[in-house]
Amino acid sequence: MKSFNNGGDLLYKWSTFVKISAIVFVSIAFFYLGRHWSDGYQQLTFFTSPLTSQTPSVSLSPNHNNSFDLPSLINVTKPDQKVSDQTLASVLPLSNPPPPALQRLGVLDENGVMTDEFEIGKIDPDAEENWGWGNETQVLGGDGEGSRVRVTKFWLCPDSLREYIPCLDNVEAIKRLNSTDKGEKYERHCPQNDHSLNCLIPAPNGYKIPIPWPRSRDEVWFSNVPHASLAEYKGGQNWISIDKDKFKFPGGGTQFIHGADQYLEQISKMVPDIAFGNHTRVVLDVGCGVASFGAYLLSRNVLTMSIAPKDVHENQIQFALERGVPAMVTAFATRRLLYPSQAFDLVHCSRCRVNWTRDDGILLIEVNRMLRAGGYFAWAAQPVYKHEVILEEQWEEMVNLTTRLCWRLVKKEGYIAIWQKPFNNSCYLSRELGTLPPMCDPDDDPDNVWYILYHLSGFIYYGYKLGRLY
Question: What span, in angstroms and rounded, lies between the C-alpha atoms of 270 and 260?
Fold first, then answer.
């Protein structure tokens, strides 16, 4: 019985030893497995129990809230293996290349909108000095009559031709005129083909890129329009002044020395129906000077064609164009102006040096042709406000002529008088027989303007033709 008990105790002790050994082995196995997997993947979670703590806690990986691309983790390389540049290029996303720089070579941007940000070609400062004299030519193929000659390089014209305008500076044609009493020398006399220039007009010395609008309304570079005498002659009338390397335009004129804005306000108050920018959108300014009248109308949504002859005031139109105002060199003389009938809502003359009543009012008849039905003629001149005998006679002639033209004197205030052309033909048709000037022939085209002389007897355009009133 004692031996049996000893054997049972031995068996019990052996089973207990096996259990403890199994537990120790499993614990050691888990310990090494956990350590191995913990080194490779930081995102795994393990239970730890600090020595100083009595309760168990959970330790979380710092990457537990991050997301990963599993395919890239599966194909991960070993730490000591280098990744080639091609592999990186295939794994990393490629960004879109930057768009090519836009090159602008004109005054329109890529959307077709006007812009002052554009590029110009490079300028060679020595080109003019080294230009040389005489044109360079090249014979193109063939012999005798079949050969052609091409000019590969033109020489520069003399400095005296910097202001040359072919059809207005044709001295030979002007000398052949029978008379210049009515301003014929200021009209177009274009040279024949065999008398045209074969050289390039040089730019003024020190020419600069023009100042852009709207700054150009108030100032331009002196070197671009080097006419200092006009500033001396008209400086007291607030036309123009010189300030260092620029011309400044205070906005005045001969008849509105206090500025064009104040002058335009006066006209608007005299005849509210003129309504610049609404009823009146297109204007002709006769004898424009430096075009301040048209320059200030632009801010009122009015487009003005400024005209003046190339006379003793030098080339006034060059100032207008440099400022950015539409302008043409032309004159009221013996031919029609190059504008169609009914082209303007208002014709303006402020001391424009035009004798409107000469030759039975033939020049005012030309204004009548260009004015739309119901359009206005604004005249600011000495006969309007001065009470000298000669000037009062001129005023009476003007009133008599405009009455026969069926114009209505809308307002006379200060030094400005404003007339309005009739809206229909009722006045023309009710005139007494023999009233001058007579009506135009129905077959006479009022839009035919190139080199068309005024009718000596003067004619008024009237009547409906092609749906328009002349």
Answer: 15
Q: Please, which residues have CB within 8 angstroms of residue 127's CB and are 6 or more apart in sequence? A: none
Residues 58-79: tens digit of each pLDDT: 555 555 566 655 555 555 444 4
Q: Which two tokens stand for residue 194?
A: 């065999």
Rounded Cα gap, residues 237 and 241, in angstroms = 10
What is the crossing angle of helices 389-404 and 358-370, to 10°? 50
- CA pseudo-torsion sign 356, 282, 317, 452: negative
CA dist 447 to 38, 339, 461, 466, 470, Å?
A: 98, 8, 11, 12, 10
Q: Is there a contact between 455 and 362 (Cβ–Cβ < 8 Å)?
A: yes
Q: What is the pLDDT of residues 259-278, one digit of tens each?
A: 889 999 999 999 999 999 99
In this structure, what token pair is assigned to residue 349?
């003359």
Whose tokens are 């004197």? That residue is 409
Whole-angstrom distance, CA of residue 343 vs CA of residue 211: 30
Looking at residue 280, the DSSP 8-state letter turns out to be B
Q: Is 159 left (phi over 0), alpha (psi -120 to 50) or beta?
A: alpha
Question: Cβ distance 228 to 202 under 8 Å?
Answer: no
Please say whether the beta carbons of 441 and 365 come within 8 A: no
Contact 448, 455 (CB under 8 A): no
d(CA 433, CA 231): 52
3-class DSSP state of 372: strand
Q: Is 389 exposed, middle or buried (0-12, 13-18, 19+ CB in 10 A)?
A: exposed
Rg (CA), the chain: 46
Cβ atoms of 102 and 110 within 8 Å: the answer is: yes
Name the pTM for this structure.
0.68
